Amino acid sequence: MYNRKLVLEDGTVFLGTAFGCLDPVAGEVVFNTGMTGYQEILSDPSYFGQMVTMTYPLIGNYGINDQDFESFSPSASALIVKEYCEVPSNWRASKTLDELLKAKKVPGLCNVDTRALTIKIREHGAIRGMIADISMSDEEVLEKLATIPVLNRHVEHVSTKMVYSAPGKGHRVVLVDFGVKKGIIRDLTARGCEVIVVPFNTTASQIDQLNPDGVVLSNGPGDPKDVVEALPMIREIQEKYPLMGICLGHQLFALANGADTKKMKFGHRGCNHPVKDLKTNKVHITSQNHGYEVCKESIENTPLNVTHVALNDNTVEGLEHKHYKAFTVQYHPEASPGPDDASYLFDRFIENLN
């Protein structure tokens, strides 16, 4: 039954069965608490370099369709599940999850005790691991894992290399791609915006040449402190145009204005995270995917105000500038998958453009 295993860097071993690509793979092991959305999760660039454990026990039951990808190809390094459904039932499905993973060379591991693995990550924190053939000794896998360098500069791998646009007859919005999800473009174009997507290292002067009405800083993977070249651009742009930041864009906005960020123990990944809007006192259920946070204590002497907090752990979930029309959120208002509680933030951005 078992032909593969996941070996964590502390020596813990989880047995499993391979599906998808059969290549060995290493990466940071994280978990997502969503009941649905494995296709969007796999194709979310924010998961670049990570092996995603799904806490929901049955995965693959509605297959894969051609409409719900968040990027062209999966960014996650591997998918770890309890039970893989080989025969999906969904009129939209064009292929199985196994077929997608084989085609895109992404390893899958099923029949894993994902409850025990999730508890391990919650107690230990995000941890590196390697999926390998069961014939390899645990010692061999650990030696191999130790030789694989830890990835950094994740954004360089997922950001667009060229400028492209999505047509619209309304406001022109420059979207800085740190690992953008298709859902952000969809929500902006649904509001009539012409969206011009630019690489992560685009300068403020290059953005000026595009004559935008506003700027959006996208989500993306990795440590925000690896993207220091974006900080001068943000400081200059926020003075000229209405600005909105999402996830990594939120963290970079904080760094650009003098706040600090740090790695979380195991992060927020799922579509059921409650967040309180401090202006309205309303609670929204949000979709989240991040392993870093803005340090609340670092905001005190900056030109920023905290606008949203996570109710599970009281971390910072939203910021606004005291002097400019610039605001950011740590979660995903485009919510793919997830609830649409936070879609009003795009309307707020459009109001700022008006």
TrEMBL record:
Pathway assignment: Amino-acid biosynthesis; L-arginine biosynthesis; carbamoyl phosphate from bicarbonate: step 1/1; Pyrimidine metabolism; UMP biosynthesis via de novo pathway; (S)-dihydroorotate from bicarbonate: step 1/3
Gene3D superfamilies: 3.40.50.880, Carbamoyl-phosphate synthase small subunit, N-terminal domain
Catalytic EC class: ligase
Reaction equations catalysed: hydrogencarbonate + L-glutamine + 2 ATP + H2O = carbamoyl phosphate + L-glutamate + 2 ADP + phosphate + 2 H(+); L-glutamine + H2O = L-glutamate + NH4(+)
Protein family: Belongs to the CarA family.
Span list, region CPSase: 1-171
HAMAP family (alphabetical): CPSase_S_chain
Job of this protein: Small subunit of the glutamine-dependent carbamoyl phosphate synthetase (CPSase). CPSase catalyzes the formation of carbamoyl phosphate from the ammonia moiety of glutamine, carbonate, and phosphate donated by ATP, constituting the first step of 2 biosynthetic pathways, one leading to arginine and/or urea and the other to pyrimidine nucleotides. The small subunit (glutamine amidotransferase) binds and cleaves glutamine to supply the large subunit with the substrate ammonia.
Binding site for L-glutamine: S46, G220, G222, L248, Q251, N289, G291, Y292
Subunit structure: Composed of two chains; the small (or glutamine) chain promotes the hydrolysis of glutamine to ammonia, which is used by the large (or ammonia) chain to synthesize carbamoyl phosphate. Tetramer of heterodimers (alpha,beta)4.
Protein name in the entry: Carbamoyl phosphate synthase small chain
Pfam families, per database record: CPSase_sm_chain, GATase
InterPro entries per the UniProt record, alphabetical: Anth_synth/Amidotransfase, CarbamoylP_synth_ssu, CarbamoylP_synth_ssu_N, CarbP_synth_ssu_N_sf, Class_I_gatase-like, CPSase_GATase1, GATASE
Record CDD domains: GATase1_CPSase
Keyword Hydrolase: no
PROSITE patterns: GATASE_TYPE_1, PROKAR_LIPOPROTEIN
Keywords: Amino-acid biosynthesis, Arginine biosynthesis, ATP-binding, Glutamine amidotransferase, Ligase, Nucleotide-binding, Pyrimidine biosynthesis
EC number(s) from the headed UniProt entry: 6.3.5.5
Domain Carbamoyl-phosphate synthase small subunit N-terminal: 2-132
Active site: C247, H332, E334
Taxon lineage: Bacteria, Bacillati, Bacillota, Erysipelotrichia, Erysipelotrichales
